[in-house]
C-alpha cells in the first residue's frame, strides 16, 4: 500500500519506491485520504521527472526541518528551535518547500499558548518573532547553503510594543530574595542580580567557567544569545554565592539534591514575587534590573553593552533614560529669566520664587 497511517496517527504517510530503487517514506501532512493520494501521485510523478528528465528534485518542508535541526543540534536554543519547527511541521508537513509562501507562514504563526488546566493565553508578538526567526533561518539555509530552493521568502519581524523596562529597586530585590524559600533558587537569583546573566546561563554554569581566585566567569559563544563570548567580572556578592556551591556537584555550579538543575520552578518564583509585594516580575526582569542599576550608578552604555553581552548598541540604549545626568549642563542653557533680553536684571515674580 502506497499511503498508510502510522503509529496510530490520523495523518497519512507515503511509502513508495523511486525509479532508481530508493524507498521514500514521509508524511503527507494531511488527514484527508483523497488529499494524501493526490500528494502521493504528484510525488511519484516528480520523482519520475527527476530520474528520467534530469530535473532538480523537489524537497519537502519535513525534509528541510530534519536537516535544519540536525545542523543546529547542540546550540543553546536548540530546544526552542525544535518547538518552533514542531509547530510549523503540523501546518506544512510534506508540502513542497518551494511552494510555501510568505503569507502562509504568517498565517501559520501560533495564536495561543496552552498552560496547565487547559488555560490558554495569547501569544505575544515578541514570541511570534522567535518563531519567525527560526523558520527564516531554515529557509535562508535552504536557499543559500543547500541549494534546495531558488530563493527564501522575506519574513520581517512583526512590530512589537515599545513597553517600559521592568526593574525593581534594591529594597524590593532584598524583599524578594527574603521571600524565596529555597536556597538554590535564592542563590541563582542573587547571582542574577549581581551579574545580569540570563537564566539559561545561570542554570548551566559549570565550574570550568569560573575562576574564583581572579574573580571572573565566562560564557562560551555557543551558550550566548548573541553567539559571542561574554566575560563576567564577579563582585563580592557573586563570589559569596558561588563559594556556597563548592562541593555540591562535580561539574555544575548549581545543583539540587546532587543533580544538575534543568528547570526553573516558576510557580515557586511567582509565589515569592507575590509575598514580596511585587507585581508582574519575571526572572528575565532580574537582568533588566541589573542593567538599570548599572546605568543609574554611572556605568557607561558601551561598558554595559560589553558586560551584558549585547550584540547591538540599541539594546542598551533603552536603559539610557534612567540616568540623564550627562544632559544636565545642556538643560541649563534653556531658561526663562536668565536669557530674556527685556527681562535682564529683573527680579522673578514672587509667586515663582521657591
TrEMBL record:
MF term (GO), any: DNA binding
All residue ranges annotated as the Tyr recombinase domain in the record: 163-332
PROSITE patterns with a match to the protein in the record: CB, TYR_RECOMBINASE
Record-annotated membrane-spanning stretches: none
Residues of the Core-binding (CB) domain: 59-143
InterPro entries per UniProt: CB, DNA_brk_join_enz, Integrase-like_cat_sf, Integrase_catalytic, Integrase_recombinase_N, Tyrosine_recombinase_XerCD
Pfam assignment, any one: Phage_integrase
Keywords: DNA integration, DNA recombination, DNA-binding
Listed Gene3D superfamilies: 1.10.150.130, Intergrase catalytic core
GO biological process: DNA integration; DNA recombination
Family of the protein in this entry: Belongs to the 'phage' integrase family.
PANTHER family per record: PHAGE INTEGRASE-RELATED, PROPHAGE INTEGRASE INTD-RELATED
Protein name: Site-specific integrase
Species per Swiss-Prot/TrEMBL record: Trinickia soli
